Amino acid sequence: MTSRPHMKDPERLTDEPGDKAGQAGPRKVFVRTYGCQMNVYDSERMTDVLAKEGYEATDTVEDADVVLLNTCHIREKAAEKVYSELGRIRKVKDERARSGKQTMIGVAGCVAQAEGAEISRRAPVVDLVVGPQSYHQLPGLLNKAKNGETVVETEFDIDAKFDHLSQAADANPVRRPPAAFLTVQEGCDKFCTFCVVPYTRGAEVSRPVQQIVAEATRMAAAGVREVTLLGQNVNAYHGDGPDGRTWGLGRLLRHLSEIDGLDRLRYTTSHPRDMDDELIEAHRDLKSLMPYLHLPVQSGSDNILKAMNRRHTRDDYFRLIDRIRQAAPGIALSGDFIVGFPGETDADFEDTMDLVRRVGYGSAFSFKYSPRPGTPGANLADQVPEEVKSARLAELQALLSAQQRAFNDSRLGMVCDVLLEKAGRQPGQLVGKSPWLQAVQLDAPKELIGTIQAVEIVKIGSNSLFGRLTDGQDSAESYAPDLKEVAFDA
Ligand code: 5AD
Ligand code: SF4
After folding, report:
1. Dihedral (Cα; 382, 353, 228, 47), 10-degree rounding
2. Is a pLDDT exceeding 70 seen at residue 225?
């Protein structure tokens, strides 16, 4: 769940229709986020759009006048999870209704896009079904739904979404956490045969460079020091540049690296076919581009890569990794793997294990293949039995975990920059991220949140590293702008 408090616009709070008598204070919105970082970003933008209308974010579903589930459809029975969550929320809605409070329930995200009106048929408690391209229309859609109509909006008009969401963020200049996401690209044209994304998120669309630069500049002014550029296929980015040409991701990163205060850049998630020279050179040249790359390969078997329509071989991947490591020695590689794709034999799986051994990952995600309705993979005859998938997943995860442990262990005694993001688990502790995206816990005063410090890694835990501030060696100035002095060009 990601929601954060927003500044209120007091003038909008008093005269909004729909505020019931006895319902003190601003209306509240609760957003639950499932799935990828793109959904995290979208949830924040939905909160921004509603903040403009006077809504405050809440972490408590019982307090919420509007409940939004931002759903994921990528694996397993995601839709079923949403229906059981809706059952729980219905009880809250009934309880609130008994004290005269209205609760609007919306389903957003990829399940909304994929299931559309089916959701409100199965769960009549739902007032609004809204696909990922229509979040900018939320206030109008909610108003419609308040009149008792069940509203379903799943059109694809992605340019309109980005234009409007940028403006909503303009109108809500708040202090932001030091690390933030920024969507630069959505959708996918690759049609891997296991994947539902091209159907739920549509064709590839890239935001224009200037729009991204404006948003990144505003983020920096609001205290953000690290931006992760997001896209389902982010390195296929091809946005209109200010010079009238199409810019790739490498060029965009180079440009963003010049924004004052943005000390760290990352991007995710990438396809091996789209790692072009410009992007690899960006890893070589840009100090602010962090030495971490999530580059999913999915399988190490040429047969399976072909069946998945990945359009590259294992050798292509090895050559690419060599080029990346030459440009950026020490880069931490991460990836995604699917085991048990239809037709995967023991020998195919062995090829995946071999690829992992040869590449050496700093971290990785691995999944059992899950047939997604409507994708070509789901119709293939030779589906792999569940127990075989489970056994392969266990074997692969054991190898990947050992690699991750070895990578983490190799940081012991190192001094590295850590961006301190928030309070840690224990009082007096803060937690931040290493350049290689590892969580680092350390004792530090909370005034250091939002600063980048040189930290010595003194212990390796199972989920995070432990560090200590090195004596007086701040590697970067504290960057804590006073928001009152920040001019927003809304
Ligand atoms: N089954 C299992 N894993 C999947 N992924 C995508 N679709 C499926 C599926 N049908 C995984 C891929 C992708 C990650 C986001 O989710 O590894 O890179
Ligand atoms: Fe899930 Fe993919 Fe949709 Fe993200 S884009 S929410 S991972 S289906």
Report:
1. 40
2. yes
User: Average pLDDT of 438-451?
Assistant: 96
How many whole angstroms separate alpha carbon 225 and alpha carbon 453? 13
Nearby residues of 135 by Cβ (< 8 Å), 6 or more positions away? 42, 45, 46, 49, 108, 161, 165
**DSSP string spanning 307-344?**
HTT----HHHHHHHHHHHHHHSTTPEEEEEEEE--TT-
Report the separation in Å between the CA atom of 186 and the middle of ligand 2, taken as the mean of its atom positions. Answer: 11
Above 50 in pLDDT, residue 4?
Answer: no
Cβ distance 293 to 283 under 8 Å? yes
The pLDDT confidence band at residue 74, using thresholds 50, 70 and 90, is confident
Is 78 near ligand 1, meaning CB less than 6 Å away?
Answer: no
- Main-chain phi, psi angles of 193, to 5 degrees: -75, -10
Q: Which two tokens stand for residue 271?
A: 């396809």
Q: Is the pLDDT of residue 278 over 90?
A: yes
- Most informative mutation of 32, 34, 36 for ligand 2 (most atoms within 8 A of CB): 36
User: For ligand 1, is residue 468 a contact (CB within 6 Å)?
Assistant: no
Three-class SS state of 452: strand
Cα angle vertex 269, ends 152, 450, to 5°? Answer: 95
Is the N-terminal amide bond of 269 cis, ω within 30° of 0?
Answer: yes
Unique residue bearing structure tokens 């790692």: 275
Residue 490 neighbours by CB under 8 Å, 6+ apart: 167, 170, 171, 173
- Name the pLDDT band for 171 (thresholds 50, 70, 90): low
Per-residue confidence (pLDDT) for residue 168, from 0 to 100: 63
Between CA 207 and CA 296 the distance in angstroms is 23
Give CA–CA dist 341/328, Å, rounded. 32
What pLDDT sits at residue 275?
A: 98
Give the residues surrounding ligand 2 with Cβ less than 6 Å away: 35-36, 38-39, 72-74, 109-110, 196-197, 200-201, 232
Supply 16's token pair. 């909004």
Q: Is 74 in the pocket of ligand 1 (CB under 6 A)?
A: yes
- Alpha helices (H) along 67-116: 78-98, 109-115
pLDDT value at residue 24 = 60
Q: How confident is the model at residue 77 (pLDDT cuts 50, 70, 90)?
A: confident
For the whole prediction, is pTM greater than 0.90?
Answer: no
